From TrEMBL:
Name of the protein in its database record: Carboxypeptidase B2
Family designation: Belongs to the peptidase M14 family.
Biological process per Gene Ontology, one example term: fibrinolysis
Any one GO cellular component localisation term in the record: extracellular space
Domain spans labelled Peptidase M14: 6-263
Shown part of the complete sequence: 84 to 350 of 350
Residues in coiled coil: none
Keyword Hydrolase in record: yes
Cofactor(s) it depends on: Zn(2+)
Keyword Signal: yes
Active-site residues, record numbering mapped to chain: 229
Keywords assigned by UniProt, alphabetized: Carboxypeptidase, Disulfide bond, Hydrolase, Metal-binding, Metalloprotease, Protease, Signal, Zinc
């Protein structure tokens, strides 16, 4: 269970305050307002969206020492979900928010590998392209499908170069060509930063996952369709440190160039 689903010592909470203010310095300020009888610092965490605050609501927690759930609420209140995956849509009177936008495209929509339940991380949405973000991308790509020769979608993490299909274990009719191009892209990455990226068809390499944008673009007629899963392989996972941004972008660029070159040769 998460940090917020546990009780923490005073020392841990002081550390948490520093971290959360550092990570969200755009919204949070820590204000020293005095010290306790035992000389421990007392801080206010101020949540402010605009520079000039108009009015405020005060919340305190832990006036009574034995009521541990009370400070747990204050931490929970501040905690931002860094690991949010889905869109932000609401669904009737369900308390769960969002649709997995990579399950919401019209490609074997909501088959095995997606969920019809709002509360799941892979919720496919109420119908294909129900999400305005998905609809906008699909409409644009559809309107320009004759000039778009390659569709590349960037995700993280796992270091993979994936190509269709993800909605079925069957091979696509361009499997061999896409596999050799994905291998070339992985080799280019290796040359650039020495990192290992694994090439393969989506369903065979990771899991069945219908309704993805790559499969949808491929079935629309855009043959060179890829999902690139960027760094890392699990050390930091989704919380990739900033120092890895540049090398990750350089290796991704080398993969994109390899794909672009192949597209140009096959126009
Ligand atoms: O599951 C996904 O949507 C992608 N992996 S991620 O960890 N970034 O969520 C993989 C997408 C592969 N392609 C399709 N499922 N169509
Ligand atoms: Zn993703």
């Amino acid at each position: 269970s998460s940090y917020y689903e546990n009780y923490h010592s005073m020392k841990e909470i002081y550390h948490w305050m520093e971290e959360v203010v550092r990570v969200h310095s755009d919204l949070l300020r820590k204000i020293y307002i005095g010290s306790s009888y035992e000389k421990r610092p007392l801080y206010v965490l101020k949540v402010q969206l605009q520079e000039i605050p108009k009015s405020a609501i005060w919340i305190d927690c832990g006036i009574h020492a034995r009521e541990w759930i009370s400070p747990a609420f204050c931490l929970w209140f501040i905690g931002h979900n860094r690991l949010w995956r889905k869109s932000r849509s609401s669904h009737g009177n369900s308390k769960c928010i969002g649709t997995d936008m990579n399950r919401n495209f019209d490609a074997h929509w909501c088959g095995k590998g997606a969920s019809p339940y709002e509360c799941q991380e892979t919720y496919c949405g109420p119908y294909p392209e129900s999400e305005p973000e998905v609809k906008a991308v699909a409409r644009f790509v559809r309107d320009h499908k004759d000039i778009i020769k390659a569709y590349i979608t960037m995700h993280s993490y796992s270091q993979l170069v994936l190509f269709p299909y993800s909605y079925t274990m069957d091979k696509s009719k361009d499997h061999d060509e896409l596999e050799s191009l994905a291998k070339k892209a992985a080799t280019a990455i290796k040359r650039t930063t020495k990192k290992t990226y694994t090439p393969g068809a989506g369903a065979q390499t990771i899991y069945l996952a219908p309704g993805g944008s790559d499969d949808w673009a491929y079935d629309l007629g855009i043959k060179y369709s890829f999902t690139i899963e960027l760094r890392d392989t699990g050390t930091y996972g989704f919380l990739l440190p900033p120092r890895e941004i540049k090398p990750t972008c350089l290796e991704a660029l080398s993969a994109v160039k390899e794909i672009a070159q192949h597209v140009l040769q096959n126009l």
